[in-house]
Amino acid sequence: MIGFILTGHAEFSNGLASAVDMVAGDQPAFKIVPFDGAQAATYGDDLRAAISAMRGECEGVLVFVDLLGGTPFNQAMMISQDIADVEVVTGTNLPMLIELLLTRGAGSTLEELAGQAVVVGKAGIVHKKLEPVANDADDFGEDGI
What we know:
- The protein is an alpha/beta fold.
- It has a single domain (2-124), classed as Phosphotransferase system, mannose-type IIA component (Rossmann fold, 3-Layer(aba) Sandwich).
- It is built from five helices and four strands, in the order βαβαβαβαα.
- It has a four-stranded parallel β-sheet, sandwiched between helices.
- Helix 2 (40-57) crosses helix 3 (71-82).
- The protein starts with a strand and ends in a 22-residue tail after the last helix.
């Protein structure tokens, strides 16, 4: 199985993990490592320890981060250079996490899951708009009442 680590600024990972738990239930090989300003000095070490531990249990680790270029992304990328079979995906959203958690399996490779994350993440971003419903009660037409 591929392990998942979710990280990001402030309450990002806590909030998404809470939503995942509500929708999909408790998930194996899924851990969060929040980047909290109060613990910024130890964040890199905490993230490395979590990735290393997960890598010891799993065939690979997919690290989900919130923002390209932010501290969680930068730290995850540096760690991925030191530990084999670690991939990083940024721009994480709830549809991405839920689908990947529910579809990962023994046959999924790390690279396939990373690619799937990008496709599903993009597909989860849409713009929808409801058109106003016409009020037929006031539309009497040319004939009146």
